[in-house]
Automatic annotation (TrEMBL):
Source organism phylogeny: Bacteria, Bacillati, Bacillota, Bacilli, Lactobacillales
Ranges where the PhnB-like domain occurs: 3-126, 133-245
A Pfam family the protein falls into: 3-dmu-9_3-mt
Record-linked SUPFAM superfamilies: Glyoxalase/Bleomycin resistance protein/Dihydroxybiphenyl dioxygenase (SSF54593)
Protein name listed in UniProt: PhnB-like domain-containing protein
Source species of the chain: Enterococcus ureasiticus
């Protein structure tokens, strides 16, 4: 299991979007569908989450409601191996979408383009002649402008097992493009001093799979020290990027095969900000 998985917050249409993305990317499939076991947030029985594999990367689609919207502050950088592959992917993702940077030749690549798909998710496609892969890309704008390098280094310090692969600077010292890895997964950061009217939102967050309560506690303290605590294990860092601590046995705890048990665990989760694994496991066993 990878350490991090992007979580995309949708207002309905999650099943439609799941099929759309699985058909768009290679090495892709729908892994698991979970449903609401209560009616507090969405109608009982409606889709809660869909776990996908896209180009080998797990992505979670969350049917959360209308509270948050995607912005280009977080996009997904897709490296493509052949022109046929990138052309097909661009055609598919741009259908009913919006072009943010025209698809064509650039000094850094024979083919590149940046778009927002019909659901609002942003993608950067580049011809790199390497197997198709997806990496989250963070664009630091407005009040966050100039903090890309700081954020990259802080995330590596907090989440561990990280390495800066390269940093390309602008003349003013801000980051034009930087690539780094954490736990073997690639991430990118950029600064932009242009007058953008968007920043990071909870529409795009990141699962962080934790092995035990000690790791959850450590990450929670480090991320929220200058950020914010949110319910159900959501934590917002000082830059406005949201991360979710999840347990490695979360699939088992929220298994829908026993609706009463799943309801107990979900109700216990709703009481929490920081995840308490033992309390969730007690609810699973009917001990609470």
């Amino acid at each position: 299991m990878s350490k991090f998985s992007p979580c995309l917050w949708f207002d309905g249409k999650v099943e439609e979007a799941a099929e759309f993305y699985v058909n768009a990317f290679e090495q892709s499939k729908i892994n698991k569908v979970d449903y609401y076991v209560d009616s507090e947030h969405q109608p009982k029985g409606s889709v809660l989450t869909i776990a996908l594999t896209l180009a080998g990367q797990e992505v979670i689609l969350l049917n959360g409601g209308p509270e948050f919207n995607f912005t280009p502050a977080i996009s997904f950088f897709v490296e493509c191996e052949t022109e046929e592959q990138i052309n097909k992917l661009w055609e598919t993702l741009s259908h009913k979408g919006e072009v943010l940077m025209e698809f064509g030749a650039y000094p850094f690549s024979k083919k590149y383009g940046w778009l927002k798909d019909q659901y609002g998710v942003s993608w950067q496609l580049v011809l790199s002649e390497t197997p198709q892969s997806i990496a989250p890309s963070f664009l630091f704008t407005g009040e966050q402008f100039g903090k890309a390098e700081e954020a990259m280094n802080q995330w590596i310090e907090i989440f561990g097992e990280g390495n800066v692969e390269y940093v390309q600077k602008n003349p003013d010292g801000t980051v034009a493009q930087a690539l780094f890895t954490m736990h073997g997964q690639p991430f990118r950061v950029m600064d932009s001093g242009e007058d953008h009217d968007f920043t990071f939102t909870m529409a795009t967050s990141f699962y962080v799979y934790c092995k035990d309560q000690a790791e959850i506690d450590r990450l929670w303290e480090a991320v929220t020290a200058k950020g914010k605590e949110w319910p159900c294990g959501w934590m917002e860092d000082k830059y406005g990027v949201c991360w979710q601590t999840v347990t490695t046995d979360m699939d088992e705890l929220f298994d829908n095969s026993d609706p009463d048990r799943a309801y107990r665990v979900m109700q216990e989760l709703y009481k929490m900000k920081r995840i308490d694994i033992s309390a969730l496991r007690q609810a699973y066993k009917g001990e609470k």
